[in-house]
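Course assignment 3, question 2. Fill in each field.
Student: A.L.
Task: Predict the tertiary structure for the chain below.
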Amino acid sequence: MNRAKLFENIKKIQSRIAAACLRAGRNPKDIVLVAVTKQVDPANIIEAHHFGLTNFGENTIQEASLKISTLKVEANWHFIGHLQKNKLNKAISLNFSLIQSIDSLELAQLLDEKLRPTGAIQNVLLEINIAKEPQKHGFDPQELPLVFEEISKLKNIKPLGLMTMGPEKENSEAMRPYFREAKKIFDSLTKKTPLEILSMGMSNNFEVAIEEGATMVRVGRAMFEGE
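Answer field:
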């Protein structure tokens, strides 16, 4: 992608975020934009960083490791894909600012156990399978309150909030009920434990997600595709 097109895409996304915030009576400064860099040319990541982006999300440990070690940009790296148990040691070594995809109590406990000898604390989000899709990972919404209580007792991971994807629908409005439900769960948990982050919304639906309460959106295709 050429530099001018990337700059144009980023500005358009930022404008769309601002417009969605205006409709919802929210402040655009309260929305964190995570640039999803799966299979994105490292040169484009560097350019995006030059244009002011500081949060980047990767879906696989292998690709994240390569980019983090070679790019060496001052940035917050997020892991947003399914985290396999046999990749935990490598994930820990990469010092992610945020692991967004803790999708089981067992995974949370194992991560905590591996972190214990280091004394490090890993910020995480708990992934909700908001539509209860069998092919997707994440906690059942009904089980989450009890599981959240258990995970909150762990010493070396810190749950900062929730992440969800929702079903893949071409019509962004069709996602609104799922995002609204995720916000209800987030608000319910926040009554007991103050949470900071509700990560939901991607390239084709992030505006609806913001209108329904997202504090973080994950955008890749709308940013890095085009010439």
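Instructor remarks: The chain has one domain: 3-224. The first helix runs from residue 3 to 24.
Grade: pending
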